[in-house]
Specification:
Length: 158
Amino acid sequence: MLESLKITIRRQKKLILIFLLTIFIPSVTLSIFGIIALRNERFRLEKQFREKQLDLVNLIKSQVDLKITELEKELGNLVQNPSFVNKEYQEIITLAENQLEKNRLSGQFFVVYNGNEPWFPPFQPEGSGFTPGPIRGFTGMEKEKSDRAENYEFVQNN
């Protein structure tokens, strides 16, 4: 049987050569190039999608930065008010509430006085005055954790 196959192949060399040149080699070549083209198209589409997403993220970031910059300017103008310098707490609460009505994002700010604890005007009950308490430092375990955190932050930033 093997001998008859060899004899048939010898007799039909032209037919086999025509088959290889017209059907087999072109189909293999087109398959390979088609796979490469599909792969390249998939990567191109993925890159295009990634670029669109990046553009959207950058647009959102720029809009958020713009809002925060506007709020910083508004708050900068607000703290120039003499009520903040003189620590007139009722007037500060009124100014903070007015600012909060104008810009809801301003509810995220708080007042810090040098040597006193931070003060959060939007969270104060109505009619309550702010009386600063003594500054409390870290003790024992808290101090140790704070020092470790500072060292870790220093190592990360260095």
